[in-house]
Amino acid sequence: MGSVTGAVLKTLLLLSTQNWNRVEAGNSYDCDDPLVSALPQASFSSSSELSSSHGPGFARLNRRDGAGGWSPLVSNKYQWLQIDLGERMEVTAVATQGGYGSSNWVTSYLLMFSDSGWNWKQYRQEDSIWGFSGNANADSVVYYRLQPSVKARFLRFLPLEWNPKGRIGMRIEVFGCAYRSEVVDLDGKSSLLYKFDQKSLSPIKDIISLKFKTMQSDGILLHREGPNGDHITLQLRRGRLFLLINSGEAKLPSTSTLVNLTLGSLLDDQHWHSVLIQRLGKQVNFTVDEHRHHFHAQGEFNFVNLDYEGNVSFSCSQPQSMPVTFLSSRSYLALPDFSGEEEVSATFQFRTWNKAGLLLFSELQLVSGGILLFLSDGKLKLNLYQPGKLPSDITAGVGLNDGQWHSVSLSAKKNHLSVAVDGQLASAAPLLGPEQIYSDGTYYFGGCPDKSFGSKCKSPLGGFQGCMRLISIGGRVVDLISVQQGSLGNFSDLQIDSCGISDRCSPNYCEHGGECSQSWSAFHCNCTNTGYRGATCHNSIYEQSCEAYKHRGNTSGFYYIDSDGSGPLEPFLLYCNMTETTWTIIQHNGSDLTRVRNTNPENPYAGFFEYVASMEQLQATINRAEHCEQEFTYYCKKSRLVNKQDGTPLSWWVGRTNETQTYWGGSSPDLQKCTCGLEGNCIDSQYYCNCDADRNEWTNDTGLLSYKEHLPVTKIVITDTGRLHSEAAYKLGPLLCRGDRSFWNSASFDTEASYLHFPTFHGELSADVSFFFKTTASSGVFLENLGITDFIRIELRSPTVVTFSFDVGNGPFEISVQSPTHFNDNQWHHVRIERNMKEATLQVDQLTPKTQPAPADGHVLLQLNSQLFVGGTATRQRGFLGCIRSLQLNGMTLDLEERAQVTPEVQPGCRGHCSSYGKLCRNGGKCRERPIGFFCDCTFSAYTGPFCSNEISAYFGSGSSVIYNFQENYLLSKNSSSHAASFHGDMKLSREMIKFSFRTTRTPSLLLFVSSFYKEYLSVIIAKNGSLQIRYKLNRYQDPDVVNFDFKNMADGQLHHIVINREEGVVFIEIDNNTRRQVHLSSGTEFSAVKSLVLGRILEHSDVDQETALAGAQGFTGCLSAVQLSHVAPLKAALHPSHPDPVTVTGHVTESSCVAQPGTDATSRERTHSFADHSGTIDDKEPLANAIKSDSAVIGGLIAVVIFILLCITAIAVRIYQQKRLYKRSEAKRSENVDSAEAVLKSELNIQNAVNENQKEYFF
């Protein structure tokens, strides 16, 4: 098929240089003259006519002669009315009427066009609409402007539907103007050469404009080489147009100098296609038909009086190739056998997107059987079946459903069967048995007729949808015009003399890199590994911020963030630190300490920072955040930031605005200051930065850069390390951002007439809208945007129904989601709608989404032109009462609060988040409202974290204990203001809830002990035999009540969960969420004057029973977790003190994790467990800052200080000896190794501090 790629294209080129101004003007010229009214009768033709007075010549608009219009003999979908305009014209509009004074009119029709009267092409609107809406009566005129216009000589109107009470009737007019241009005919070996006048070339602007048509799928249309090795090539490959540009700047091709673009598809259809290449400077537009690609070219290049060589003619040849389209799986073409009885022979070409379908069936005589030629999974299969015999198969070709033309030749003669695909002969198969082939005289192409016709045709995989051409039987070409006129064979659901194939993947409507595949009638998107989902890969599967992940209940970790939702930016991986404030942490490649030497203004040092995200992704993330910051530390020894003589900067940094910044941590952009200058504590009060003191010792300037518009830092320049003993070092922390302004952006609508308005929503091909709402009203419109006929509307239709209504030109559609519970419960509900070319979907909360498929080949463009109304409608009726939050359209957030501030009856913000999000606060945490959002108050919980879900656990060494004193003195309890105040001596404690988890291997053990001033107590112990015992003594004069659980050894090294709930004399106990017991106490019902709670060893003498005393003396060795007595959390008070709590810790108690890891020793793991937060904010500068600064801390005790000082002296002496050797070695080599930089600098700072006499205080 076609010539070899690289050969000159066998084609017609239409050189339309004189019409360039028309193209650029976009049809603004006058081209709307009536073209039909003056045509002679001979210019009109039709498929048939009802009578001589209903002939096609009477089909002129508004004419009443004859019967008042054209009507065919039979009204069916195979009729047509044809106009010959005499020469190629530009057609810009069409108009239709019905037959004058009759009930005959057409309600929908197709418009076809052709240059030759053969090989018709269908006009399509919006690249997919196949039909025009026609008339509703006989006399009114329906006018359509064609955008784009059509350049053709012949037009054909094909009625699709008509008045059911009448018949087909048409009067028509066509509007346009003359279209003349030069043409050239190339035969694949010839060429047309341009020799440019260099004086006429523009160095700034170049334009190449041409039109071409061809039946060949490969060839070169244009090639131009410049004097500097630059060249441009326009080449057709497999029916697609490739533009290759090499700017010639590089000796070898590279990605920066080569441009390779592809546009268009199925361009080998023997119809005119327009190509336009425009260059303005380095901006290039490449346009094929209506599809445009814009790109920025690298380097300089120029585009390429007339000469030619080879067989070139300046006129149009018209190849007579008549295709036929099989429109549906019910289509077929039945033709008689021309070859004689002893042979089955047929050839044809086909093109399709479908993987399967019948191509040809021929029944055999004498024997009951037949030959089937069909597509299966894109391969051609030839099957001979005969009753009682195994079928004989031949498979040929692969990927034949690629939309390209493929040739097939079938031959079955005597007892041999063969088939060739694209000239490649498949292996011939001998028939089973001596029988010869005898055809029954009929060939069925594309499918089988209905069984009522008595045919034995078989179509196991369904009918064929696609195009065929050059059909021949027994070496005789089939005359398809005779077929169309009914004089040869018969057919059903065909479109003769036209190939109606379209490439639904060009352009590719699968977004975000989705892979497009197609069948004859639809396209499909594979969204695998794109990060998006939906019919067109439009909807991101990731959240837009860490804040959104947090409010789904996620904890700290790495997450993919898609900052612009369904917008063009790709998702990227970052770390979310879910504390009470949600921090987004974005790392870069320059987090290590970097040392700089030997620089000056003429030889500056430049350090660049590359982030894990692109600058566009970073900007979107920063814009969403409430606050962003980045810590920068500049270490200096005789290295200044500013020249003190003239104030010129000696070091500076650059942010995303690509502007030089000379302010440092904490300072506003207009001040050249450091943090110490703002706080007034620089080491030299004459300067605003420590480094500007220019001292011959290490110091630093550290601070937070927090001006969002300048972040992140992308570059640092240092110029003052060229003097003797001059040196600098720097360290940049990760970009930290907190909050999400869009997530909580909300407005409250007070009346049904209130609304907010925004500019028109543009979501022509893909539109998504998402928001949260809460209300107590039973109905109301959330959002509405209108066009002339198109619209979208989202509303609460009833307390249990949310409805999405829309119209894109195919009539109104509605999708509703019904909930089993009411939406007007004053809690937040999430709504998301999406409409694309394939479907519309509506989802509310976690309810099952509802989907409405788009009509096949219907209108696809959503065309809106009014304002977008939020919370109401243009009529100010049926408005919404309540709150709307986080409204996003195609990933872009609308600022409801800003608009609400200037709109009456609408209030910015909305309170009441805890009604929806309070369930996220766990383990006794309380939801608290904020002006923006909420937080979980974990004050009275044994857990911590943003949702009170992080348990606090501790490893207890031998002999250790934690004692929580509810009251140090019975008499002081009445004036207590601590958490223990509710446990004062005047109170009778009749109930308590105790929860904790433990893991140990030691027996006996004391898990928990609660004492009273009245010698009452509660003890939870593991006895020597491993049983769990709970001992209540609520009366000092009676023995304790003992609840014993001896069903297993509780000291088995596994984690166990205990719940004890007492209501007066009734105690409910649960172990490991499955063992439950309820007991009644005999010793009493009240705890009087609670004194303390002990975890671990009992240190003071207590009047307790022998088992408790034995366990108390041994204490507890192992892990305790999430210990809580009513509202008191002793481990939390000990390990995470938020205020002075009466807690005493004795012995080795360290925060740990009680989660057992398989194959490891529990005790050893607890001792070594690291619980450092992976927040990215760990004090990276600590080894340096502690050596430079003179921070004060609490002295742990005189003995500890003395021991610490002795240890420090020993360590410093050893380090001085080691680091002097290391420093001398690094100085000699001038090492720039980043890995060793920080260690070397730390050693120098330690040496410097050992000499300095600055007093230090340490915490032990």
TrEMBL record:
Listed CDD domains: EGF_CA, FA58C, LamG
Membrane topology: Single-pass type I membrane protein
The keyword DNA-binding appears for this protein: no
Gene3D superfamilies: 2.60.120.1000, 2.60.120.200, Galactose-binding domain-like (2.60.120.260), Laminin (2.10.25.10)
SS bond partners: 883-910
Example of a GO biological process term: cell adhesion
Keywords, in A-Z order: Cell adhesion, Disulfide bond, EGF-like domain, Glycoprotein, Membrane, Repeat, Signal, Transmembrane, Transmembrane helix
One Gene Ontology CC term in the entry: membrane
The Laminin G domain, residue ranges: 322-499, 745-910, 961-1154
Domain Fibrinogen C-terminal: 537-588
Family (UniProt): Belongs to the neurexin family.
Name by which UniProt lists this protein: Contactin-associated protein-like 4
